[in-house]
Amino acid sequence: MLPMHFTLNSTFILSILGLSMHRTHLMSALLCIEGMMLALFIIITTFSSTNNLQTMAPAPIMLLAFSACEASVGLALLVATSRTHGNDHLKNLSLLQC
């Protein structure tokens, strides 16, 4: 395995581990999701550029657009949660509460 592939795969796996283990604040969960999206963006970009696939050319840009939309929705939820609950702790968020 090339060092670049190892670095990108370990970045993605560390982001998943950070999301699954450190679930205290909503902001840290959003940062882990952004790390996963950026690792996927770099992986898809390098894959499409090294293999010269013209059909894969718009895929990184679409992924980056979806990532920006996800970040804006996540930050809007963070602001709404901090206004209603007073903090961004994930343990306070429950679908069973009205």
UniProtKB/TrEMBL annotation:
GO terms of biological process kind: ATP synthesis coupled electron transport
Major localization listed first in the record, in broad terms: mitochondrion
Keywords associated with the record: Electron transport, Membrane, Mitochondrion, Mitochondrion inner membrane, NAD, Respiratory chain, Translocase, Transmembrane, Transmembrane helix, Transport, Ubiquinone
E.C. no: 7.1.1.2
Protein localization: Mitochondrion inner membrane; Mitochondrion membrane
Record field: catalytic activity: a ubiquinone + NADH + 5 H(+)(in) = a ubiquinol + NAD(+) + 4 H(+)(out)
Species this protein is from: Sceloporus occidentalis (Western fence lizard)
Protein's membrane topology: Multi-pass membrane protein
UniProt keyword Mitochondrion present: yes
Name recorded for this polypeptide: NADH-ubiquinone oxidoreductase chain 4L
Gene that encodes it: ND4L
One GO CC term on file: mitochondrial inner membrane
Entry-linked Pfam families: Oxidored_q2
Entry-linked Gene3D superfamilies: 1.10.287.3510
Enzyme class of the recorded protein, top EC level: translocase
Recorded GO MF terms: NADH dehydrogenase (ubiquinone) activity; oxidoreductase activity, acting on NAD(P)H
Family statement: Belongs to the complex I subunit 4L family.
Transmembrane segments: 29-49, 61-81
Known function: Core subunit of the mitochondrial membrane respiratory chain NADH dehydrogenase (Complex I) which catalyzes electron transfer from NADH through the respiratory chain, using ubiquinone as an electron acceptor. Part of the enzyme membrane arm which is embedded in the lipid bilayer and involved in proton translocation.
Top-rank lineage group of the source organism: Eukaryota
